[in-house]
Amino acid sequence: MHQHLNVVTLGVADVTRAHGFYVDGLGWRPTLHVPGEVLFLQVGGGVVLALWSLDEMVREAGPTAPPAGELGRAPITLGHNVASESEVDAVLAAAERAGGQVLVAGARRAWGGYSGYFVDPDGYRWEIAHNPGLVVHADGTVTFGDADTTGPGAG
User: Fold this and answer.
1) 3-class DSSP state for residue 34?
2) Mean pLDDT score of the chain, rounded to an integer?
3) pLDDT for 35-59, tens place per residue?
4) Under a CB-based contact definition with an 8 Å cutoff, are residues 29 and 23 in contact?
5) What value, to the nearest 5°, has the Cα angle with vertex 95 and ends 63 and 55?
6) pTM beyond 0.90, yes or no
């Protein structure tokens, strides 16, 4: 797994409310907004913050609730974008060999890409994604191309 992070995904109860806070309230500019599903905000060179519908996150990546009695831990997914579907599978296998646990095997997604999920030994969820629509340019800006990017697939 190449050492980089492209997407930090936070599960949110209401994407419209998140849009109101970050875009309307704080003045941040969206990179991609799919109303009711996901909002991407570029937060650095080659890095986006994805505010993803918690319901959609659970459907794709599995339950996100912390263990009973544990407070203060919000649903979060760290995104690592790779160049191909086979690389997604290779990184998932490497994470498992390293002591991680694959939560969701690599699969084609409704948003037009391919992704899978593993959890590291401390419980942090990583999405390994081939998102043909997410393009990181040489200057670090992130754009979304012609692919159907109706979900985070980031990550």
Assistant:
1) strand
2) 84
3) 999 999 998 888 998 989 988 988 8
4) yes
5) 20
6) no
Name the residue among 151, 143, 146, 90 with its Cα closest to residue 116: 90
Joined tokens for residue 16: 């419209």
DSSP state of 140: S
Does residue 104 contact residue 116 with C-beta atoms inside 8 Å? Answer: yes
3-state secondary structure of 19: helix
CB 49 within 8 A of CB 12: no
Question: 133: which 2 tokens?
Answer: 């629509």
Residue ranges of E strands in the chain? 7-12, 30-34, 38-44, 47-53, 76-81, 101-108, 114-119, 125-130, 134-136, 142-144
Q: Which residue has the higher pLDDT, 41 or 72?
A: 41
Give the Cα separation of 80 and 6 in Å (integer). Answer: 6
Contacts of 55 (CB under 8 A, 6+ apart): none
